[in-house]
Each structure stands twice: as C-alpha cells, then as structure tokens.
User: Fold this.
Amino acid sequence: MGFIAIATTDELAVDEMKAVELDGHRLLLVRAKDGFYVVDEMCTHEDYSLALGCIEGRRIKCSLHGSYFDLATGEPDEEPADEAICSYQVKIEDGQVWIDPTQTRSESHSRR
Ligand code: FES
Assistant:
C-alpha cells in the first residue's frame, strides 16, 4: 500500500489526537511532545476508543479503566489491558504526516 498522507504537521497541537480510518482500520494520529505516532484507535482490553482518553508524555491513557499504552511500542504499561495495540511507521515529509498502515514500528507487535 505504501505511505499515505493523513494530516498536515500543523493540524495538531502537542497532546492532541485525531481519529483516522484507513482501509477499514480505525487508527489514531497522536502528536506527543517528541513527535507523531499512529496507533490502533481501540483499546485491547474492551474495544473502547482511546480517542476518549488522553496523552501523557509518550503514553496514551484509556479513559474507561485507566490502562496506559506506550505510543512507540504499543505495549500496555498498566493493567487491566495486557495486550499491545499496534504502532505504525510514520514519516514527516512536505509538511505532512504519512503513515504506512501495513508496517508496524519495529518494536511494535504485529497483529496483521
Ligand atoms: S477498555 Fe481500555 S482499559 Fe478497559
């Protein structure tokens, strides 16, 4: 599939996020303090939208039961979630944020 532009780099302030649907997959673009991340939108615990949570440093918090996920690795940092979300390859080019929904970051678990 290759990289697809999903937002301009000035669209989001730090700690903001935007839901994106690509090829039937619900993803979240997040601007953290150290850059942009794209992760699965739904929490692995109970299929609840992480877009309703908040960003803290390089982590996203699920607002339903309070699990945190590392945005770079997708790994849960706190229970009750015990399964990682996917974090995808992102690049910044021409003032836009591009992602390849077929490529997870190297340290991220792949569930595809
Ligand atoms: S649904 Fe996300 S922690 Fe329970």
Summary: Strands lie at 4-8, 16-22, 25-32, 35-40, 54-56, 59-61, 68-70, 87-93, 96-104. The chain has one domain: 4-104. Residues 43, 45-46, 48, 62, 64-65, 67, 80-81 surround FE2/S2 (inorganic) cluster (CB under 6 Å).
